[in-house]
Design a protein that fits this description.
By secondary structure, this protein is an alpha/beta fold. The protein has eight helices and ten strands. The protein has a six-stranded mixed beta sheet, with helices on both faces. A four-stranded antiparallel beta sheet has the order 2-1-4-5, with helices on one face. Bound molecules: adenosine-5'-triphosphate (ATP). InterPro entries: AAA+_ATPase, ABC_AA/LPS_Transport, ABC_transporter-like_ATP-bd, BCA_ABC_TP_C, P-loop_NTPase.
Length: 243
């Protein structure tokens, strides 16, 4: 049984079909790349999986159970988490406070609960921001703000992590370091889907790549196959190129 099964997913915004009959299966322990030019529907797929958007058609199963109509907090409680493209820390709380918020179950009673300092330190250390715990988010450099977003997702203890453009705005050294950390998450038992515009940071990281264009899957295969795929190259011609 696949860990994640997206079957015939369609999402329309009024007359715009953002995702059209898209299917994807992710096996436990895989790192799958989901690429496509600007506006091809990648973030919409993630938003549908996380129940941030209602689907227009199709179904989503996780660990064998149908999650299509779950609320977002139910999806998270079942072991799915997403790092969004945008960073949205609470600027009036420290890095530690921001991480702690994500360890709290969705209930008012939980205000007294949450992770211990040790656990929060461990989530931060897994992504290399353990020295920033007492900092305020607006004092952090860009890469650390992005790492905080990942630490928040780690704090929900996901089995499957969806990463939306995790390398955006990072320099080459930061990209290399983050790719190594993502590899370590896999060694620790996590499964991941990584969205990116192009193959840049993904080539050595992912097991296979799925390509979206105008909401439709146009190719799937190994990174090498995708880099050479003619339909993919054509889809990217108008844009920035696949590499
Ligand atoms: N909430 C929304 N309301 C209306 N249209 C939307 C909404 N979200 C996305 N869209 C549209 O759906 C299409 C797919 O957008 P989406 O953000 O999923 O693409 P993407 O591949 O993630 O793009 P990018 O790489 O630029 O982030 C686009 O045409 C976008 O304008």
């Amino acid at each position: 049984m696949s860990l994640l099964e997206v079957d015939g997913l369609t999402k329309q915004f009024g007359g715009l079909v953002a995702v059209d009959d898209f299917s994807l299966e992710v096996e436990p322990g895989e790192i799958v790349g989901l690429i496509g030019p600007n506006g091809s529907g990648k973030s919409t797929v993630f938003n549908c999986i996380m129940s941030i958007y209602d689907v227009t058609d199709g179904s989503i199963r996780f660990n064998g159970g149908d999650i299509t109509d779950d609320a977002t907090h139910e999806v998270v409680n079942k072991g799915l988490s997403r790092v969004s493209q945008e960073s949205n820390p609470i600027d009036s709380m420290s890095v530690a406070g921001n991480i702690k918020l994500f360890t709290l179950p969705n209930s008012i009673v939980s205000l007294r609960g949450g992770a211990s300092e040790r656990e929060i330190y461990d989530y931060a250390a897994r992504i290399g921001i353990e020295d920033d715990l007492q900092e305020m988010p607006d004092e952090l450099p860009h890469a650390d703000v992005r790492r905080l977003e990942i630490a928040k997702a780690l704090a929900t203890e996901p089995e499957l992590l969806l990463l939306d453009e995790p390398f955006a705005g990072m320099n080459q050294a930061e990209i290399t370091e983050l790719a190594a950390q993502i590899e370590r998450f896999r060694e620790e038992g996590m499964t991941m889907v990584v969205v990116d515009h192009n193959m840049g940071g993904l080539m050595d990281l992912v097991d296979r790549v799925v390509v979206l264009n105008n909401g439709t899957k146009i190719a799937a295969g190994s990174p090498e196959e995708i880099a050479e795929n003619e339909a993919v190259q054509k889809a990217y011609l108008a844009g920035e190129g696949i590499q």
